[in-house]
Amino acid sequence: MPKQAKKTETAVSTASEVAGPDMASIISLLEEHRVSSELAQREHRASISAYFKAAFAVLEAKLNQTQTTVAEHGEQIDSLETNANLQDQRLRILEEKCAVLADSNAKLAAKTADLEGRSRRNNIRIIGLPESIEGPRPKTFFSELLVELLGNETLQSPPELDCAHRAPAARPQPGTRPRPVIMRLHRYQVKDLIVREARKRRGDLRYLGTPVQIYEDFTQEVLEQRAKYRDIMSKLYNLGLRPALLFPARLQITLGSGAKKRFPSPLEASDWCLVEANSCRSTSLQALACSTLPLSPSQFTSNPLSGHKLDVTLVGLLFLKRLLSVTTIYFYQPIDPRFSHLEREGLRCIGELYIDSLFASFDQLRVAFNLRGSDSLDTFN
User: Fold this and answer.
1) CB-count exposure of residue 84 (10 Å: 0-12, 13-18, 19+)
2) How far apart are CA 258 and CA 254, in angstroms?
3) What is the spatial distance between Cα 281 and Cα 270, in angstroms, rounded to a whole number?
4) Nearest to residue 126, comparing CAs of 90, 166, 155, 153?
5) Same domain, 248 and 307
6) Where does a domain end: 84, 115, 146?
7) How far apart are CA 317 and CA 86, in angstroms?
8) What are the φ/ψ torsions at residue 157 (nearest 5 degrees)?
9) Burial of 132 by CB count in 10 Å (0-12 exposed, 13-18 middle, 19+ buried)?
10) Same domain, residue pair 10 and 48
11) For 259-263, 310-314, 346-350, which range has the lowest pLDDT when averaged over its residues?
12) Each residue of 315-368: pLDDT tens digit?
C-alpha cells in the first residue's frame, strides 16, 4: 500500500482509539472516499493513456503518410532534375545548331542579295517617262530614247538592249505617277557610261518637257542600305571631299592627297567626319588671303588629313599672294575702260593693291590713290 494510505490508516486507528465509537463512521467514510478516489484516478489514468495512445497512433499514421509523400516527392524531384539536365543539354545542342543555321542563313542571304544585285549589274531604271509611250516595240523605242536624252556625243548609236519593260506593278490611273522603266543593256560599259552621264546632267534630262531621271537598278535591300549614307555624304561634300558609294553600300572618300579611305558603316564615317571638322579652327578665305606670309597648315589644323586639303588651298593662296606682289603684272587695259581711269589715278599694277604685305581695304586705296566715285570701287566688286 502507498505510504499515504498507511499514514491514513494509522491516523484513523489512532483517531478511533482516541475518539471512540463516534469516529468509526468518519473513518469508514474516509475509507470509502479513499477507495473511490483511487478508482477514479485509475479510470482517469486509463482514459488519458487511451487518449494519448489514440492520438499517437493518428500522428504516427500521418507521419508515415508524410514520410511516404516526401519520399515520393524526392523521387519526383530527382526525376525532374534528371529531365531538366537532359533538356538543358538538348537546348545547348539546339542553340549551337541554331547559331550555325543563323550564320549559314546570313551568308546565304548575303550571297542571294549579292547574286541578285549582280544580276542587275547591266540594268538601269528610268523614272518619269509617261505611260504607254513605248508602243508595241519597247526595246527599239527605249534604245532610241536613250540617244535622244543623252545626245549623239554620248551615244553615237542606239545601245543594244537585252530587254526593256515597265516595273511589274498595276497600271496607274491617269494623272498619277507613271511606273519606272527597267532596261537591261547588253554591255556593262555602255550602262556605266549612261549612268555617269545621267549623274552629270541630273535635273537637266527631259522628255517632251517632262523631267526624267536615270538611276542604277538596285534591289530594295541595297537601296535601304545606301539611303543611310545620305546625311553623311552631304557633310562630306561640305568638307570639300569626294565621297562615293561602292556596291552594295560601302562609303569611299578620296582625300586631297589622293589617298582613299573606306567606311563599312555610316556611324564610323560620321565619327570620322566629326573628328575631321573639330580638328580645324574656323577661318575664312578673306582672312587667309589677307594674312601675312608665310602660311602653314599647322596654324589652322592639327589633323594631318585636313592638313593635306588645307595645304593645297594654302599653296594656291601663296601663289596668288606672290603673284599679286609682283609689280610687273599690270592691269589689262583693253578689257574695261575703267582700268585706264585707275591708271591715271596712279593704280597701275596688281601688286599695288598690297600695302605693307597686306591686301588693302577700299578706304586705304581711296586715300593712297585719290580714288573718287563709285565707278572706281566697282572695279573691285
Assistant:
1) exposed
2) 6
3) 19
4) 166
5) no
6) 115
7) 77
8) -145, 160
9) exposed
10) yes
11) 310-314
12) 444 444 444 444 333 444 334 454 555 666 666 555 666 666 566 666 777 777
Residue 327 lies in a domain: no
Helix residue spans in the chain (DSSP H):
3-19, 22-119, 138-150, 188-200, 220-227, 230-238, 266-278, 285-289, 304-324, 337-344, 362-369, 373-378
131 close to 178: Cβ distance less than 8 angstroms: yes
Structural domains of the chain, count: 5
Q: Residue for cell digits 602660311?
A: 295
pTM of the model: 0.51
Q: Which residue has the cell 487518449?
A: 51
Instruction: Provide the sign of the torsion angle of the four alpha carbons 66, 71, 76, 78, taken in this order.
Output: positive
Domain stop point among 59, 85, 115:
115
Q: Is 293 part of a structural domain of the chain?
A: yes
- The CA distance from 228 to 267, in Å, is 9
Enumerate residues 6+ apart whose C-beta is below 8 A from 150.
194, 197, 198, 201, 205
The CA distance from 283 to 280, in Å, is 9
Looking at the domain assignment, is residue 322 inside a domain?
Answer: no
CA distance 371 to 341: 9
**Tens digit of pLDDT for each residue in 83-131?**
999 999 999 999 999 999 999 999 999 899 889 988 999 999 999 999 9
Of 2-6, 112-116, 377-381, highest mean pLDDT: 112-116
Q: What is the CATH number of the domain that holds 150?
A: 3.30.70.1820
Domain of 345, in residue numbers: 333-378
Cβ pair 134, 141 in contact under 8 A: yes
Q: Which triple of cell numbers denotes residue 31?
A: 475509507
Residues 346, 372: contact at Cβ < 8 Å?
no
Residues 164 and 247 in one domain: no
User: What is the total residue count of the chain?
Assistant: 381
